[in-house]
Write a structure and sequence with these properties.
3-stranded antiparallel β-sheet, two-stranded antiparallel sheet, 166 residues, alpha+beta, globular, 7 strands
């Protein structure tokens, strides 16, 4: 109940059975376009007979890469040089569009250091795909929100506002 208005709020997460695994051991996609550790989360609100649903998905960056554990705190990501990334990448987003419609990609990885090549490759691949159903926004979460500056999330929300309204 908020401000005396009662409603039902449901939150459901569904984890994919494809490419499930623990952090660092399972990354990227497979040849079918299944992203590692893919999760679909649906929020459903029911109020006075009306229902609204919002679905958000998350998963590993959808191209061929790995991050093998070693003695370092954060192992360096390795992007595969021996495969055609675009085949699996295209399959991933074709499936996403069929299941969910228009896609708004929000990439929160660091845009410097060892994660920079991941962000650059992801951005380049989305641009190469040239699909009007897919939009890409990179937001360096750790840089922007360091030292608990959560108010800086407004920068991201402003970037997404038009698409969110749509």
């Amino acid at each position: 109940s908020i401000n005396g208005k009662c409603f039902d709020w449901l939150l459901i997460s569904r984890r994919s059975c494809f490419r499930a695994g623990v952090r660092y051991y399972v990354r990227g996609i497979d040849s079918e376009g299944h992203a590692a550790n893919f999760v679909e989360t649906e929020q459903i609100v029911h109020y006075k007979g009306s229902k609204a649903s919002f679905v958000q998905t998350r998963g590993s960056i959808p191209f061929f890469w790995s991050q093998r554990p070693n003695l370092k705190y954060k192992p360096k990501p390795q992007i595969s040089k021996s495969v055609n990334h675009m085949d699996g990448f295209q399959r991933h987003f074709d499936s996403q569009i069929i299941s969910y419609g228009k896609q708004m990609i929000v990439n929160l990885v660091n845009q410097k250091g060892s994660e920079k090549p991941l962000e650059q490759t992801f951005s380049k691949m989305v641009n190469s795909m040239a699909n009007g159903m897919v939009r890409y926004v990179a937001f360096d979460f750790h840089k922007e929100c360091s030292r608990m500056r959560w108010d800086r999330l407004q920068i991201l929300l402003d970037q997404l506002a038009e698409q969110q309204d749509e």
